[in-house]
Amino acid sequence: MCLMSDIRKTIRMSKRGFTIIELIIVITIVAVLAIGIFVAVDPAKRIGEARDAQRWSDLIAIAKAVELYTADNGQLPSDFSVSNIAEGEKLVLCSSAASRTCDGQTEACLVVDDSDFLGVYLNSIPIDPSKSVDTDTGYYITRGSGNSITFGVCDAYNSAGIEMKAQVSMATLVAVCGDGDIEGSEACDDSNEVTETQTCGNGTQENGTYCNATCTAEVVLTEACDDGDVQNETCGDGEIQTIFGDYCNSTCTATIVFPAPEYCDYDTFTNDCNDAIYGWLTEADVGTGNFCREGICNSKILLCL
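RESULT FIELD:
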């Protein structure tokens, strides 16, 4: 009888199943293992995608705040009411002015500190998950198609990039000649309002494509060299070229190579000789046909040794 009673008791206990606490413990263990396996499969990808999700959320928050402010006030927030941003040009959102790196390029910074906007429509400037301070948020503003205000991510995990268009228009573009950006009707812009000219003999090689002072046309300069004078350095010019190497001709169109330093030279018109030791010597000093040789000028030779 006792044996049969024990068997029936055991059967009843086996039919009872798991308790709630036991189920919670099992579910927790399974969840932890699943998360670990999920991340371990490709941790960089999972982290990158999670960060991109946060970036999308941040851009939507900025865009919606600008839209709401504009709807309430009939105008853009003052910080975003800029007219000199060209389509595709990026300004990094920040709390203090400085140059920042965005998408591999050095870009200017747009300071966002309008108290009518921040703290009212947007608590603070969102910061990219890979950044830590609002002096460089990692987010930018640009002019999108149709003059739309567009916000984007400087360094997204997604190689296609991330951009969010706000449903408001940017101020009409005003081209600024000399700011380095080709805007509106500008033909070029080389970051200054100077028409570069080509002046042979000023010691600066002017070569390349520049922009004129009004940003309406390109200026092409073609100097091959410029050594600071407009003479052809050569044996017979009266100048002692003590340094061998490359010089420039009188029109700055070609280089002249001196394979060795000169010790003397002569004037082809007067036959006067310029000696590195004695200075200028005339025909009376050295006789007729006074071309020079190393050290002194006293015999006629055709090369400066």
